[in-house]
Design a protein that fits this description.
By secondary structure, the chain is of the alpha+beta class. The protein is built from 15 helices and 39 strands. The strands form 8 sheets. The chain has an 8-stranded mixed beta sheet with strand order 7-6-11-4-3-14-17-16. A hairpin with a 2-residue loop joins strand 19 (about 290-295) and strand 20.
Length: about 850
């Protein structure tokens, strides 16, 4: 914010900058003088209320078949005595192709143009400073956008209209239309960068999320509203008879017109934008027939094909599975979401097959394991697991990356296929880092994500499942648990179509996305979006394998040869699919050639992307030069979450903590996790860090060998020096033992160079003393807790791949003698040691 509002509005300007100042700046819902419905207000010096800039959002959706076209109209109002710039962080569907923006100023309508992101920003800033009204739309994530509107004059209303096209989700005969209404607060890992932040949000940019200030808008205090409300209408033509229709999230009016058409309207009594709008409807028949939509213009031909293989998915011989249930116990899950997650785990435990093994991982600021390795599915172990889940409480940060690594890097049973059920709301800022970790560590496992909440992070959870070769599903905390868990087991207990290939014959198909069709589970369709040249009548051939046997299916299609103006939105859907594919090639960090390809594609199809933005500029100079007052629109916390879970540090720039709610985790009233994983080391990336292959383990209510339990050093049996050990005279000398530090993670102020040097010296000492006694090959992962005086106070064996007990004992004895540099807060060092 460049300057304060003049005259009587100073207090309001401060309120916008620091939205969690004492409540005198707001009208509480319990205040007798408050606006009805608990509307938030700023106060003039004379006590008169002032609403905030975003006044109303109107959503108009049209659904035809399996494609939706949605128009979002935002009305901004300036209630101040000076011109303002309104800034609003809003969500849109992650698979939506945003292809239009217009701005209405008085009687004038200004059409937005798509530009390179930096060029669009420059044009917008120049217009803002020259006295012209302008609007700018930036993409921060595929599902998070920033809308800026400059030079709204006192008392004026300006509307900005966005349009996007997106496919509907389809599963087991049911379509789902989802419209997100609020950006949930994100946990921001990493160290604050310092200096000028990129955006106007309330969290500092960090080394792991360098755009944190652009994705973390200020939060409305509990019991208040911004005055912003929403209206929504869905007009539906399903193309086939609709069997059942329901809105599971909102109070709506449903008007049926015949068997296949309907109109759904949001009732005014449920107009607070704090949760996803979810409309579901069933269509006649259990099997989905192939459906194709086409369009052709000067850019070529485009098609979207939706088909469901007509395979007989009969249950076959059940493959033994190693089930990993991962539960998010961070503070954002406090209340009903945590209880919902526990219910899902209880239900999942009851559905396991007799030959399955299982483990449970919970994560918040650290990672906890129910057991150091997967246990047999016995009544005793399940009872212990239930008690473990019973004791979980929502607190601390959301170090989701550690949860991902824990479930994927834990030692695997070669006789079983690991299946991961990963529960979370996805409220983190390091999306790309986590997706990249799943890509790199998934191996032959399968990851199924389960979004629990009223407004979850669809982009992250969808992509985790896609690159994890699994599937995703969502449930509000008030939805039935049994049905959704049964659906998960229905997927993994049946054979599915793998090694999928498509042959497009001689129809001139040039590009099709996704490039690689993921494994297909029962009752799921394949959705393909493609570009073609010549066209004509022919066949697409689908090939794959089910339960090891070949599967082939032919689909007749007609791709128009002449221009076809209908279904113009298909070009946008193709462009969006291509951008998504290209973006997936750089989860591990930006690549200049990929950035260029994304930018070129987005400009060609007039689409939003990470590197392109829409900008609309009015030609009329309407006010004096200079920047207007910037006003950031606060957002409500999502329904079902607790404001206090985010308020501790979230609405301030967390320079001291570098995490949105790390202050909550550090509170003395919140128990710290038993074993915590330090954050991973950095790698170059736009907003990501590379994961390290480290896990932490905790034993609870199971009998374990001593080497698997973290012990205080004082309680450990002292290991005798090697010289004092009795040596067998017939021990055959072997090659020299070689030990080295392979990976190192530090949590705390200790420097990496010093830790690396001291640890390597200790390893050389052990190798010298034990030369000729062992021939060891493998990895050993240890966690060392360093006290404030620099001494090692505890050592935990996280993973023992050496399987040489004497060597491990010797290592622990030597490592406990290391004296690191003293520091007031101590540190935790996790080190992977390689032998051989």
């Amino acid at each position: 914010m460049q300057r304060l509002l003049s005259g009587t509005l100073h207090a309001f300007a401060l309120t916008l900058l620091l939205p969690l100042l004492p409540s005198t700046a707001y009208a509480s819902a319990n205040d007798p003088g408050a606006i009805t419905e608990g509307s938030m207000r700023a106060l003039r010096d004379d006590g008169a209320p002032i609403p905030l800039p975003l006044e109303h959002t109107d959503v108009q959706a049209e659904i035809s078949g399996f494609v939706s076209r949605v128009q979002v109209v935002q009305t901004f109002h300036n209630p101040f005595q000076e011109r303002i710039e309104a800034i609003y962080v809003l969500p849109l569907p992650d698979k939506g192709a945003v292809d239009s923006m217009t701005m209405e100023v008085g009687q004038r309508t200004v059409r937005g143009v798509i530009k390179n992101r930096e060029e669009a920003r420059q044009l917008y800033e120049a217009a803002k400073n020259s006295g012209r009204t302008a609007a700018l739309l930036d993409q921060e994530r595929p599902n998070i956008f920033t809308q800026s509107v400059a030079n709204i004059l006192p008392g004026e209303r300006i509307t900005v209209t966005l349009t996007y096209v997106a496919p509907l989700e389809y599963d087991h005969g049911q379509y789902t239309f989802n419209f997100p209404m609020v950006v949930g607060p994100r946990y921001i890992p990493g160290t604050p960068l310092g200096g000028q932040s990129q955006g106007t949000g309330t969290h500092a940019d960090t080394d792991r999320v360098p755009d944190a200030s652009r994705i973390f808008p200020p939060l409305l205090p509990e019991g208040t509203r911004s005055g912003h409300d929403i209206s929504l209408t869905v007009k539906l033509d399903a193309g086939v008879p609709i069997q059942k229709m329901e809105c599971v999230s909102h109070d709506v009016e449903i008007i049926r017109s015949g068997t296949r058409r309907a109109e759904v309207r949001l009732k005014p009594s449920d107009a607070i934008p704090n949760k996803d709008f979810i409309l579901r409807y069933d269509v006649a028949g259990d099997q989905l027939e192939a459906g194709i939509l086409t369009h052709k213009d000067e850019r070529g031909g485009f098609f979207t094909l939706m088909l469901q293989p007509q395979a007989d998915f009969r249950t076959s011989e059940i493959t033994p599975k190693e089930m990993f249930f991962v539960i998010d116990q961070s503070c954002s899950q406090s209340g009903l979401p945590m209880e919902k997650q526990k219910g899902i785990i209880y239900e999942a435990l009851d559905h396991m097959n007799p030959g399955d093994t299982f483990n449970i991982v919970s994560f918040n600021s650290g990672v906890n394991f129910f057991a150091p390795k997967a246990l047999a599915n016995t009544p005793e172990n399940v009872a212990r697991a239930r008690r473990f889940v019973d004791g979980l409480q929502a607190n601390g940060g959301t170090e989701m990356l550690q949860g991902v690594l824990a479930c994927l890097d834990a030692e695997r049973d070669p006789q079983r296929l690991r299946m991961v059920l990963f529960l979370s709301d996805g409220y983190v800022g390091n999306d790309e880092e986590i997706i990249h970790a799943v890509e790199q560590h998934i191996g032959n496992a399968r990851m199924f994500t389960y979004g629990v909440g009223a407004s979850v992070n669809h982009y992250l959870l969808d992509r985790m499942a896609e690159v994890g070769r699994g599937d995703y599903q969502y449930a509000r905390p008030d939805e039935d648990t049994k049905q959704s868990v049964a659906r998960f087991y229905d997927r993994i207990s049946k054979p599915y179509l793998v090694d999928i290939e498509l042959d497009y014959g001689d129809l001139g198909v040039e590009e099709v996305y996704p490039k690689r069709v993921r494994d297909l589970f029962a009752s799921q369709p394949i959705i393909l979006t493609g570009h073609y040249g010549a066209g004509g009548h022919g066949k697409f051939t689908l090939k794959g394998r089910i339960a090891g046997k070949p599967y082939v299916e032919e689909i007749e299609v007609d791709l128009p040869k002449a221009a076809q103006p209908e279904n113009e939105a298909l070009a946008s859907m193709f462009g969006r699919a291509k951008i998504e594919h290209l973006a997936g090639l750089q989860h591990g960090g930006e690549k200049p050639e990929i950035v260029k390809a994304i930018t070129d594609t987005a400009l060609r199809f007039r689409l939003m992307s990470a590197y392109t933005s829409f900008v609309a500029i009015d030609d009329v100079v309407r006010t004096g030069q200079g920047a207007p007052i910037s006003v950031q629109q606060p957002v409500p916390t999502p329904e079902g979450t607790r404001y206090e879970a985010f308020a501790a540090t979230g609405p301030r720039r967390a320079a001291a903590h570098g995490a949105a709610w790390s202050g909550v985790a550090a509170s003395a009233s919140v128990p710290a996790p038993t074993v915590a994983m330090p954050p991973p080391p950095p790698v170059p990336s736009r907003n990501a860090r590379a994961p390290a292959r480290m896990i932490a383990a905790e034993a609870k209510e199971v009998d374990l060998p001593a080497k698997d339990v973290a012990l205080d050093v004082d309680e450990q049996k002292e290991a005798k020096p090697a010289e004092e050990r009795k040596r067998d005279s017939d021990v055959k000398k072997v090659r020299a033992l070689r030990l080295q530090v392979r990976e190192l993670i530090i949590r705390g102020p200790m420097t990496r160079a010093a830790a690396q040097r001291q640890l390597q010296q200790a390893l050389e000492q052990v190798a010298h003393r034990l030369a000729g006694r062992f021939e060891a090959t493998g990895d050993l992962t240890l966690s060392l807790t360093i006290g404030a005086d620099g001494t090692v106070t505890a050592i935990a064996v996280i993973h023992d791949g050496l399987h040489v007990a004497d060597l491990t004992t010797e290592l622990r004895a030597v490592l406990k003698t290391i004296r690191f540099a003293a520091n007031p807060s101590g540190s935790v060092v996790t080190v992977r040691i390689s032998a051989g």
